[in-house]
Amino acid sequence: MEKIFGKDGLLSRVLEDYEYRSVQETMALEVGGAISEGRASIIEAGTGTGKTLAYLIPALLSQKKTIISTGTKTLQDQLLDKDIPFLKKHISQPFRAVCMKGRANYLCLYRFHRSIEQPDLLPEDNKELTKTFIDWAQQTASGDRAEIHWLPDDFAGWEPVSARGDRCLGQKCPMFEQCFLTNLRQEAANAEIVVVNHHLFFADLAVRYGGYGQVIPPYEVVIFDEAHLLEETANSYFSIQTSSYRVLELFRDISGEMAAIRSKNTSLSRSLQNLGKLAVQFFEGFPASDKRERLQPETIPLEVNQRWSKLRVSLDQLIGDLFRQQELSEGLSSCHKRALEIKQALELITDQRDPNYVYWYETRGKGKFLWASPVQVAPILEECLFHRTRPYIFTSATLAVAKSLEFFKKRIGLPQETKGLILDAPFFYGEQALIYLPKHLPLPDSANFIPALTKEVEAILAETGGRAFILFTSHRNLREVFSRLSQMNSHTLLVQGEQPKATLLKRFREDTSSVLLGTASFWQGIDMPGETLSCVIIDKLPFAPPNDPLVAARLEKIAEAGGNPFWDYQVPSAVLTLRQGLGRLIRRATDTGVLAVLDSRLFKRSYGKIFLESLPESTITHRREDIGEFLS
Known about the structure:
Number of domains: 4
Radius of gyration: 26 Å
Strand order of the largest sheet: 3-4-2-5-10-1-11
Number of strands: 18
Low-confidence stretches: none
Largest sheet: 7 strands, parallel
Oligomer: single chain
CATH architecture of the largest domain: 3-Layer(aba) Sandwich
CATH superfamily of the largest domain: P-loop containing nucleotide triphosphate hydrolases
CATH class of the largest domain: Alpha Beta
Strand content: 5-15%
Distance between the termini: 41 Å
Number of helices: 25
């Protein structure tokens, strides 16, 4: 490690603008030690440490099959486009690296050729775009949607021909040998490094846990980068979910299969039509909502239960008809399996017999999505992942709360004795950042908070000349502050939801006096170095809403075990989210700027001390005038 990461090591000779980082060398030594000793390790390493090379190089030198799981596409692209090509050029040990994405990112050749035979399955509203898409599908060597950057996110023709798992015919597919996923898995089996994201890793784990095979090849080492996202990602993949869209897709696919084989089975046709009508009525029983709604036996309307009884009978009839027809085509056999899965999911969600799950629904567009989510993923991960002793490396810039890693260990089920390392970022926060914490603002639950918040934001922007991210803990606060700031008309305001995220970030880079307002998705994964971003303003401490179904169930579970839900979960979770938001500012050794948290609870509530202890070690001021002086 010293020959590579040391002051006179390999990196110093081949990297432009090289700066020796002792924390990078320390991290590489710990990763190498964990791999050679076959143990787990948690490493918090701040932005600028050079984490990717600090874990990639020890993994390569170990000659062990390594999975690298990332939390965001940005990091995945960095690994594939920058770090891995760099190592192939400068590390003498040859290796193969492959990227695997979720199935929905790839084209299904079987479904694509079926859609060509039935043109009504492809959109006709933009025939030129559809023709260009067909041309790509007939020529692509990878089937990866990422190749077609010109394809709109909402292109209706992609979903019907994507290689989603619930539609896959597996080895019975007539195009199995040519399948892009078949070829990708063979490449991954022969590679030393396989890059995936957390979603795919846990999709694979859920499949293995259920005894249905595997998605990614067997591995010896796992490195989780952006590990702070693991709990929520694991929760989504060990949840059971169904939706009105999924039933509609089943309806459409059965109709398509019947048309393809020219089936005129009247019983199946009647069952299908009956299912379509009853499914619409059932899902309409869940009122549209802009937030997650918890489902409990006493809150489910009587008419929903009555409609479910009818829908269950209809599903049983359809499943029976499909069973009798499944030998006519592999497509109908697949639809039979999907109908069974939908019925089982609906039974689990409506019966609510498992106390380890929380039941809820949400509205997305015109669709209703029903969920059964595990209240805690730690017991599941203990059983299906950590039961086998192997090197697991967890790293992120934000894993510690008040200099402790205990909260992270507990949430994902790691033993208390798991070794942890907290490395300081190689930045001089005392010189690079000023933290502004006003004491005079009303508390966030005050009726005067939004007017006072808006006035304070406007005054800060006058000091910074715009160049700011304003991160909100709720869409409501964002809308109200935006409405008030718009009337002042002093800066270009870019608001989440008005344009695609990438477009907003591009405009923010180009207009150096603009201000970007965002909520959850802008709190992490955004890298905006330089003076374009000189200030990050956070409206209030980011406590998770206690009425969210999953949060409420977690708090109840902690209370049942004799813990303190507020101190044991809400405070540490909010601390980590706050650290993520503040981490948007200093991304390079040359960056400077101001961090502002406009929540007086930092000083007026006892838990404020924990937040203050978790802030970067910078100069703190309560005087707004210091902002302009610092930036100048």
